[in-house]
Design goal:
The complex is a heterodimer of chains A (about 60) and B (about 260). With about 60 residues, chain A is mostly helical. Helices cover about 85% and strands about 0% of the residues of chain A. Chain A has three helices and no strands. The model of chain A has no long low-confidence stretch (mean pLDDT about 80). Chain B has about 260 residues and is mostly helical. Chain B has one domain. Chain B contains ten helices and no strands. The chains are: A mainly alpha (about 60), B mainly alpha (about 260). At the A-B interface, α1, α2 and α3 of A face α3 and α9 of B.
């Protein structure tokens, strides 16, 4: 049963990999779309950047 | 008060953009330029490693976010994760050896080994250009291990060229170009953490003072971090056929640049 699940996951991975390759068939406009959650993560990364720079200012 | 050097920010941004997009060039390209500007090796090498450790993971995270790669830690570990771990583990051993050789001042004839790396990168770049029109090949794990070992060996003896060999090695081994770029970003992050650890631990073990000058860190980090946010998105939006062309051309340029450094500049 567990082996079947692992095999199933492996097939899913392979399908995912092929799907990513096929992504090139999408138009540039479609690829340019950014999800809202990704924008939040970019914002969070920028906050981390500012915090790191403040830390550098205090430590160095 | 931290000092931001605009020229270093711009250079770090440009080279990190290319590194996160084409999987190579941050160390090989930026290090000699900073030496030319007048910075010392101990002001440059550890700072680039610290910066690359952070930007490698940041870039890798956003490559995952934009769907250029699918890293999975839970079982069954997928192919991309296995490739990334394979490259990162060999790279970690190599960079520890490289830092060890630097600190123990073991002399290796740099011009000969750098010429060998330049010729290797140029040859691989040319082969990749010749193979441009061929259909995508099947995954060849043994070939990938072979190229990872060669890249690790080069880095271990301090010859550089790790990124180009790993990147082109992946493409020859049948890894999709966009995924290969993301794999290099992730593994460079892991390898750089090992490098930073070695830079700190080896002097402690040898009982000598730790000589790291942090003056460049805020500038390199600023340029590198912003590039690490933008590059995965660029990899996402440009079609793979563009990267298929850019990667070998950039590798050729790096190989020629290394040769020029040795014999002309």
């Amino acid at each position: 049963m567990e082996n079947n699940e692992i095999q199933y996951d492996e097939y899913l991975d392979e399908i995912g990999y092929i799907a990513r390759k096929l992504d090139t068939e999408m138009t540039t406009i479609e690829r340019m779309k950014i999800q809202k959650s990704t924008l939040y993560k970019i914002g969070f990364a920028l906050i981390i950047y500012i915090a790191t720079m403040i830390s550098f200012g205090l430590i160095l | 008060m931290i000092e931001i050097i605009p020229l270093v920010v711009i250079l770090a941004f440009l080279f990190e953009t290319m590194d996160s997009c084409a999987g190579m060039g941050f160390g090989t390209g930026l290090t000699p330029l900073l030496f030319v500007i007048g910075y010392e090796p101990l002001q440059v090498v550890p700072i680039l490693l610290i910066s690359e450790a952070i930007t490698g993971f940041t870039s890798g995270f956003f490559h995952q976010e934009f769907g250029n790669i699918n890293v999975k830690i839970k079982k069954p570990i997928n192919r991309e994760t296995k490739v990334m771990l394979n490259i990162a583990i060999l790279g970690c051993f190599a960079i520890i050896l490289s830092v060890f050789l630097t600190y123990y001042a073991i002399q290796v004839e740099k011009s000969i080994i750098k010429t060998y790396v330049a010729i290797l990168v140029i040859t691989m770049g040319l082969i990749a250009m010749i193979k441009l029109k061929s259909k995508s090949s099947n995954y060849k794990p043994k070939l990938l291990t072979f190229f990872s070992a060669i890249a690790g060996f080069n880095k271990g003896i301090g010859a550089g060229g790790y990124g180009p060999v790993v990147m082109l090695g992946q493409i020859f081994s049948g890894i999709y170009e966009k995924t290969a770029t993301a794999i290099v970003s992730f593994s460079e992050g892991i390898v750089s953490v090992a490098g930073v650890g070695a830079f700190i631990l080896i002097p402690i073990i040898k009982n000598i003072p730790l000589e790291i000058d942090f003056i460049l860190l805020p500038s390199v980090f600023t340029g590198g971090f912003l590039a690490a946010l933008i590059s995965p998105y660029m990899v996402r939006i440009f079609p793979n056929k563009i990267w298929k062309i850019i990667i070998p051309i950039y590798a050729l340029a790096i190989g020629i640049y290394v040769l020029l450094q040795i014999y002309v500049i």
